[in-house]
Amino acid sequence: MGSITFSKAMTRLTVLGALLPLALHATATAPDPVCLQIQKVISRASAVFLPGDEHYASGIAHWASSSSQNSTCVMEPGSSKDVAAVLRIVGQHETPFAVKGGGHASNVGFSSTTGVQIAMSRFSDVKYDAHSQTAEIGAGLVWDDVYAALEPHNVSVVGGRVSGIGVAGFTLGGGYSWLTNQHGLTVDTVVAYELVKPNGQVGVVTEASDPDLFFALKGGFNNFGIVTKFTLKTFPSTGIWGGFQFIAGSDIAQNTAAVADFCANVKDPKANIIADYGFVSGQPIMSQILFYDGPNPPAGIFDKLLAVPTMLADVSSRSMTSFIKAVPLGTAGLRITSHTVPVLQFTPSLLNIIANESAFWGNQLAPKGAQLVTYAIEPFQADIFKRNPDKTAYPPVRDAVFLPLNLYFAWLPPQSDDDFHAAVIASGDVIRKAALAEGQDITNGPLYPNYALSETPLSAMYGKNVAELHRIKKIVDPKNVMGLAGGFKF
Ligand SMILES: Cc1cc2nc3c(=O)[nH]c(=O)nc-3n(C[C@H](O)[C@H](O)[C@H](O)COP(=O)(O)OP(=O)(O)OC[C@H]3O[C@@H](n4cnc5c(N)ncnc54)[C@H](O)[C@@H]3O)c2cc1C
Ligand SMILES: *[C@@H]1O[C@H](CO)[C@@H](O)[C@H](O)[C@H]1NC(C)=O
Ligand SMILES: *[C@@H]1O[C@H](CO)[C@@H](O)[C@H](O)[C@H]1NC(C)=O
Ligand SMILES: *[C@@H]1O[C@H](CO)[C@@H](O)[C@H](O)[C@H]1NC(C)=O
Question: Which CATH entry fits the domain spanning 8-119: 3.40.50.280, 3.30.40.230, 2.60.120.260, 3.30.43.10?
């Protein structure tokens, strides 16, 4: 998704962002009794940090400052047994808690809390098994580390597309990847979950061991317990081609034509792009990522995109880790809202409407402290679910492929929160109506949960699967322990 930004404009923000943690001073209140009880029962593999402690700030930190909350303590579990112990204690006391993987949720309270923050960072192993062509991946990792660990084995996974994204939230919500055209979403490639159930039982969930729970975990986030490890299919990989381009406002028309051409005509499943219509520092700008799963894309595929003049670009044959590092992102610490509109096709007219939305809201929101107003065009092939037909909680429909357009707005002043929230909804409505007016049948298109606003109804994301997910939830978590954690709730 979006949010790659012109790096020079962001330098000032990086500096501000780096200073923020200094402002976090512990106040001299008594430690929370629930935190003290957790501290007493956990093994030496785990730790509890109170406000002011060394790991507290990183434990509650999120990519979006608007998603961070001050918890009573941070618990870093180092074993699934200790995860079970924490669930038992918060369940007994009905203490709110949160589970954080990479901390990239932009909805407040999804992986943050004013109660007990569980930070999964100690689950950080990657174990590749050449025989089964799978990898066991700790739930505290970000994809950068996973790619780095798998690269020496010449394999890769269907994982994150930019730097810093957590394995856990990405995989528990769906997972649109550079390899999605070939292998489906990340949920389509999970073969096992190591799960701590809400009743404290630790087990491995597979299609064979528990088909209902296996289905529910493929999109159902933290409703069914805490995942400590994912086993994913791996795929051969010996280098990729790709990188980024920044395109000035004056060249956006030419680029839009090239993007529309790519969306309509490129059928090679190894090729993919993200084209981002943005508005940064008072200017329209496009940032774009090109990807080919192989060191040399066949001639023709990217010619039109590469012919567009750029302000800055870095596209080459390289390793996956070099690619992930090369694509510049905005800084952490901005307030962020993310929204999505499912569309069937990025036509030239729809792209023009999206470009206009970006410029319109960029201007409108500039006085409110806008840093980024971006719309990420993420085209995928129309047969990705036909070739990966297994039932998953998300997406609820597999006979059509809805493309998850991502609206992603970032700002600084907290008092502007309501303005940005209202704007992202208004803009989403304009795009939705425009797609419908073009004859795109998107009425039943599911919204991608990992991009959706927190108030999105379950039926808008999980469609016909909602009743089934409610049923499974009742069996796995009759006392609704996981209801003490935020997020979309069954
Ligand atoms: C810059 C950026 C780029 C992105 N790019 C993409 C992309 O290319 N494709 C895509 O599909 N999405 C993308 N996303 C969306 C991303 O998938 C979600 O933000 C995702 O939830 C992030 O996972 P995380 O572990 O970092 O999040 P977190 O905030 O840590 O967690 C998100 C949710 O998962 C739950 N959770 C986390 N760990 C566990 C666990 N161990 N057990 C149970 N529940 C858990 C949390 O409680 C929370 O509800 C992007 C987001 C950003 C900000
Ligand atoms: C967290 O606490 C610090 C220090 O007391 C305070 O400056 C900050 O505003 C608090 N953050 C939130 C989100 O409440
Ligand atoms: C990975 O590929 C490289 C280049 O093709 C090769 O030299 C190396 O031996 C391979 N490594 C493994 C573990 O197969
Ligand atoms: C641009 O978008 C705004 C806001 O949706 C709308 O009012 C305006 O008519 C649009 N302009 C064009 C040329 O489409």
Answer: 3.30.43.10
